[in-house]
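Progress against Task 2.4 (sequence-to-structure conversion) is shown through the following example record, which the project officer requested during the mid-term review.
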Amino acid sequence: MQQNKAPAAVQAEPAKKKRWWTKDDTELTILALPTTVWYILFCYLPMFGIILAFKDYTITPGKNFLTSLLNSDWVAFDNFKYFFGLRDFPQILRNTLLYNIVFIILDIALPVTLAILISNIYSKRKSKTYQTMMFMPHFMSWVVVSYFVYAFLVTDKGLLNSVIQFFGGEKVNWYSTPGAWPMILIIMHIWKTIGYKMVVYLASITGIDSSLYEAAVLDGATKFQQAKYITIPSLRPIIIMMFILAIGGIFSSDFGLFYQVSRGANQPLTPMVATLDVKVYQMLTSGTVSLGKTAAASLFQAVVGCITILSANAIVRKVDRSSALI
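Structure tokens generated for the chain above:
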């Protein structure tokens, strides 16, 4: 019996060579181009100014800024020694760190709580209304907010003093009462930022699989138990990300909050409202402090902020690798 011959192997067609540049690459590059140009102009190009922190900048008559900068004397770390040697440096460093620690804690606890509460509102109209009302302060300038605060706290006809007098109390000169300002600043910070951060967490909540909640309801879980065992664990990655980003700015402060709201951070409020950013501005506008010393203060903030965010990311990476930013 004649055996059937095996069919000849069909020669495979040569695979098409992958193009190194496609139409999608062109479209994505065009989309990324404005952002790239923005970062080059406003983030990377100004980094050349770091050299200011190590020079005693003086203006050369008839020369431009760059020529004056290059001709200025090199002073190495003398500008940093001046900044660290300021009499009020420990105080402003303490204020910056303590305020930011409080802000970091509240900026996680309160927005997460509000996001969970609003996500459980059955009426969509009420939910959107509450979101809009809390989100609106985010768009207001601190300059505008400072006038509202002044209208509340001014001694003569301020709303708060009017209420105090109505109940038989005496007027308080809030702008001469330093002890009250930590609470005022914390309240103003929460009022202005809580809406934006709440929306971030609320958007994450909407992405949680609804079948998890349905299964929890069938098992008899209460709303508190659903939040504890489903919502909060699902929000952990975004909470950690926001925490790491906040840690990176722990040596910086919201200039508008501490300077505009306090109407210049002048005495006697200075011990309570002075932060690193406010100090840098005051040094810059004093007319007696060289530009190199203010640049040294800003560079100190940038370097220490970079170290803190990398350190926080490294710790998170060891604990939960998937939640790290880098």
